[in-house]
Specification:
3 strands; 3-stranded mixed β-sheet; alpha+beta; 96 residues
Length: 96
């Protein structure tokens, strides 16, 4: 009789948003559990909502943040990233 392997949680994908999928990541413990997670562009999802659902961009961004980004469904929950520049992080610190 063979060894029984413990079933690992599955990665959770966002249906219908394959064109917004950027890649995958492997979260560090305690979130890890060996499950790769999908990484999506929040900006691309918001743009789809703007175009397909006739939302304003601020409303679409708020929808992504409130209904997708903050919705934790377990270890395989997809992650959302947003485009940024160094100016989004405030003043640069000189290390000298």
């Amino acid at each position: 009789m063979g060894k029984r392997r413990r079933k690992q949680p599955a990665s959770i994908l966002l249906g219908g948003l394959d064109d917004c999928l950027l890649g995958k990541m492997f979260p560090l413990p305690p979130d890890a559990q060996g499950v790769p997670v999908a990484v999506y562009s929040g900006d691309m999802i918001a743009a789809r909502l703007r175009d397909d659902e006739n939302m304003s961009m601020p409303d679409a961004r708020a929808f992504v943040t409130d209904n997708i980004e903050q919705n934790f469904l377990g270890p395989g929950t997809a992650r959302i990233v947003w485009a940024a520049t160094s100016e989004d992080f405030g003043q640069l610190v000189d290390s000298d």
